[in-house]
Amino acid sequence: MTIKFSKKQQLSSELLIVDGFWGVGKSVIGELVSVFNSMECWRIDLPFDLIPILYEKKSIDESAAIAIIRNLFDEISYNVAISRSVNFRYKDLTSIWKHPKKYEYILRMFEEGGSDSLKKISDNKMIIPISTHLSTSNNDLFLRSLGKRCKIIRCDRHPLFIVDNWANYIDRCQTDPREFTLNISYKQEDIPFFADGWEDEYLSLNNLEKSIKSISVLTSLYESNYSRMRDTYGSDSILEISFEDAVKNTDNVVRLMSEFLNRDVNYTIYKKVNKREKLSRKTAYLEPGHKLLKHSKNKVKELEEFIIKEKLSSIKNNVDLKYYDELMFLIGTYEKKWFN
């Protein structure tokens, strides 16, 4: 007899999933969501990466996956409310020292906890943002588990810059014990789960080709899955944001997120975040503070075109033509979606 797992009694906290590829700028979105009232410090929790993938690959029963997500999120909510398992490491991106509630987290350590903390979760309409990697590429587990208590922001970025990031990273999936991407075993090799179905091709490619093919496969899954989720759950559960918009048109993106989250902006905090992250910026293609960004808009545009041309030329010289064509298709689709 198959056991059906369950968790009907749940806390009232809300989950905000900030999902996307490696290298799409989720840390910027993590900083921006901190400007909303009742938003807790954003965090990265590995089970929220892994469980949806296991569920997607049918390696875990649906009732078990849902029950585990509900249990884990309620545990996180309670721990956050009493400052247990919050990140006090000063230099980490998810450190509480970068969050406007940093002193409140210290005070929470001395509170009694128990039912008082449960009341705090409810009264404060607590939202906990969790950054994930590829967890919503082909499933709706978070929305299925938490319903209206969950919202998803999908972060996107120009494919050329994602490929650049991945090419310098993808080897770690097989060589670095501190890399926690879920792997599958194939011919005595550990390869990333997203190579499922094209394993031999993956093993035959260089890093740039692996990156282009992986991003192409995952982009197709994301687009199909987000279309299905919007049809099922509505646009009030899912918001897509491009990195370029987030850093260049920050006020507009924050307004969209405010409507999406149904939370007001704390403009004092927003001003501080903008200053720290150097938002908004003239371009998304250079690090903030680059001396050329002081030039006119036309000069910046010329610089952007030059950067793209140089990156494309470098990639073209190091990949098979079919992967270059695949990248150009991704770029064309992305620019049509976000830049037109």
Give an overview of the whole structure.
The chain has 340 residues and is an alpha/beta fold. Helix content is 51%, strand content 9%. The chain has 15 helices and six strands. The chain has helices at residues 26-33, 46-56, 62-81, 102-108, 115-123, 141-146, 159-167, 172-175, 199-204, 207-233, 243-248, 250-261, 267-277, 297-316, 321-338; strands at residues 14-19, 127-131, 150-156, 183-186, 189-192, 238-242. The strands form two sheets. Strands 2-1-3-6 form a four-stranded parallel beta sheet, sandwiched between helices. Strands 4-5 form a two-stranded antiparallel ribbon. Strand 4 (183-186) and strand 5 form a beta hairpin. The N and C termini lie far apart (55 Å). The mean pLDDT is 92.
Oligomer: single chain
The proportion of strand residues reads 5-15%
Q: How many runs of DSSP E, i.e. beta strands?
A: 6
- Order of adjacent strands in the largest pleated sheet: 2-1-3-6
The low-confidence runs, each spanning 5 or more residues with pLDDT under 50, are none
Alpha-beta classification: alpha/beta
